[in-house]
Every structure is written in C-alpha cells, then in structure tokens.
Amino acid sequence: MYEVQSRRDLIKNHSELFHKDDLIIIPDAGEPDGSMIEVAEKSILWVRFKTIGKQVHASIPDLGVNAFRAASNLVVKLDNLHTIYDLVDKVFAQSRSTFEPTKKEANVPNVNTIPGDDVFYLDCRILPEYNIEDVLSTIRQMADEVERSFNVKIEISTEQKEQAAPPTDVSAPIVKRLASAVKEIYGVEAQPRGIGGGTVAAIFRRKGYPVAVWATLDDLAHQPNEYCKISNMINDAKVFTLCAFG
Fold it and tell me: Which DSSP letter does residue 199 get?
C-alpha cells in the first residue's frame, strides 16, 4: 500500500517528470512466455455482508430469526448479478464480470444454536464499462428484498472499492513497440489483454498516460516461494531497451 501511495504522490506532486508521449512499461504482471501485454483492468469490489437476526436454541426456531438462512438466500440471489451485468469483453481472458462469494466468518460455535449474526464476503471483478456505484445499488436492492422476506437486517460495507481506470488503446505506440520487441527477443506474438487483478498502471492511466504492463513472470504471485528468474530479467531488459531505442 505504501508503494502505491508513493506512486500516486509522485505523479501528483512531480508531474513534470512525465509526458503523454513517454513510453511507459510497468513490469507488474505477465505470463511465463511473455505473451501478454496488459492494457486493461477490471474494477475491484470486495463487499462485506452482515446479516442480523435473533439467536435462539435450534429446537425452538420460531422464537428466533436465522441469520444464516437469510444470508444463504442472499448468496444465491447475488448470483443474478452475472445476468444483470452480462457484457462480454474479449480483451479479458475472463471475458465477463465475476461475482463470487468467498470468505465466510464463523457464526455460532455449536450445532444446536441458530445464529443471530452471519457474515460473508463477495469478490467482484467488474468490466470497466460498468460503474461500481451502480453495482452496489443493485446489491443493496437484493439485500432489501431478503430483509423483507426473512425479517432480518443486512449491513453492507466495502473492504475494497477501486473503479477501473480507462484502458490503454491497443494501438498505442507503447503496445506496438512492446509487441515488436517481445517478438524479436522471445520469438513470441504478444497480445494485448485485460486482467481481473489490479496493478499500479491504473494510477498512470487515470492521468491519461498510455501505459503497458508487461514482464515474463511465472504464475506465483503472493505464494511463499515467489521468485523471478535471472534469465527473464536479462531478456526483459533487452525488450525494454529495444522499446526505447530500437
């Protein structure tokens, strides 16, 4: 987070260091064979749902309100987001927006208790064409329906909310020069693609800089044995040199 903030501050406070015709490459994502030039990213939205009912002994359910049951119905209802926000963009390997329930917090410690509270999370990777606030509004409407049906209260908060930056044009000079350099050094036809994760390229793109994200990276991000091959670093440096001077 500190590194990202540093880049934001750099562009904000020292904009004279950058120009719109600069060739900017950020080695923040890539494929093992160098075949992907990242030009677009999805919006990232992590949503936390807390469903509040009334805890009671499981043998007398009518005296309580099962927050777990209501939350489970909401999980199923949220799957309709895929049909509401159904645009397809072939630039992305995962060409549609995704809305996946992920983390589930523990509610009650024993089997014979109906939970009064239940918490789960939704990971959303949304195509740039959609506005995050519109998605959140739809989610709120779904939660309201569950509240009325199950007599619960549902609190919604966001753990992360990052609207996608405008994509880099696939015909931008940096994309074409990078593809040519990759072909010469690696013998690979690199293609412009979009990804579901986020990179620091978004900071530059929001300021109007046509940025390409590229490197030769094994798919080990955030794993304990994450590494970078020396041979990749040497050949990647050759690619960068060709882009600048070739």
Answer: -
The parent domain of residue 201 ranges over 2-41+165-245
Rounded Cα distance, 216 and 200, in Å? 17
- How many alpha carbons lie under 13 Å from residue 128 in its C-beta half-sphere? 20
**Which candidate, 195, 184, 193, places its Cα nearest to that of 240?**
184
Collapsing DSSP states into helix, strand and coil, what is residue 238?
Answer: helix
- Where is the domain boundary, 114, 139, 162? 162
Query: Taking the model in full, what pTM does it have?
Result: 0.83
How confident is the model over 160-208, as pLDDT tens digits?
Answer: 999 999 999 999 999 999 999 999 999 999 999 999 988 889 989 988 8
- Please check whether residues 57 and 148 belong to one and the same domain: yes
Residues 184 and 224 in one domain: yes
* pLDDT interval class at 1 (50, 70, 90): very low
Of 162, 194, 213, the last residue of a domain is 162
Encode 84-142 in three state secondary structure. HCCCCCCCECCCCCEEEEEEECCCCCCCCEECCEEEEEEEEEECCCCCHHHHHHHHHHH
Query: Are 194 and 145 contained in the same domain?
Result: no
74 CB-contact burial (10 Å; exposed 0-12 / middle 13-18 / buried 19+): buried
- The pair of structure tokens assigned to 23 is 């060739």
Question: Is beta strand 24-26 parallel, antiparallel or unpaired with respect to 211-213?
Answer: parallel
195 and 135 within one domain: no
Are 50 and 144 found together in one domain? yes
Residue type, 90: K
